[in-house]
Amino acid sequence: MVLEVSKKVLRFEFSDDNMDMSVTEQLVISNHGNAKARYRWQIPTSMAFVPQPAVDEVAAGSSKSVSVTFRPTGQRSEEELLVLQIEDGNSVDVKCQGIVNEARCTFIEKLLDFGNIPVGLRAKDQTLHIKNQMRTTAIFHVECNSEELTITPTKGRITADQKVLFTVGFISHVETDF
To answer: Residues 163, 78: one domain?
Structure first.
């Protein structure tokens, strides 16, 4: 079995207006043979580049589209090899390159102190600022896994040498030290 891919190299970059945490590129897999071909992607453990569908088949004489999504893992530049494993055929390598603009932001306030708060009552919201230290725009996403905290905004951009004001709210329904 032989399958062909439309691109041997996929390059992922975030555009200036993109505020998402991932970028997706399309890849076409073609089967010019006379029998259906099954395939499975071998995905690196970092999960920075993920093809969908991960397992599928391509009918004889047809093509299928695959979406490959790049979700940065924290490095400025990432490169990995996705391997298309073809049942009863040779593997095909697709080189993926992900580029992320460098961003460096700092908190201006180093501490938030809500003081002692009675259980079940909402504390007065606190504010904090994050300043972009670079000459390029920084995109941010806030992921808060605490039921006690609310943080707004949850995503946005900070232009060069500017700062953004965040509002942090706190309420707890159980007695505990934080």
So the answer is: no
Cβ atoms 80, 40 nearer than 8 A: no
pTM above 0.85, yes or no: no
CA neighbor of 20 nearest in space, from 92, 69, 93: 69
- E strand or H helix at 30: strand 23-31
Distance CA 82, CA 92 (A): 8
Q: In terms of Cα–Cα distance, which of 59, 57, 51, 61 is closest to 83?
A: 51
Domain tally, the chain: 2
Rounded to a whole number of angstroms, the CA Rg of the chain reads 23
Q: What is the pLDDT of residues 47-67, one digit of tens each?
A: 999 999 999 999 999 999 999
Asked whether residue 14 falls in the same domain as residue 94, the answer is yes
Asked if 100 and 76 touch (Cβ cutoff 8 Å), the reply is yes
| Boundary residue ending a domain (53, 79, 99) | 99
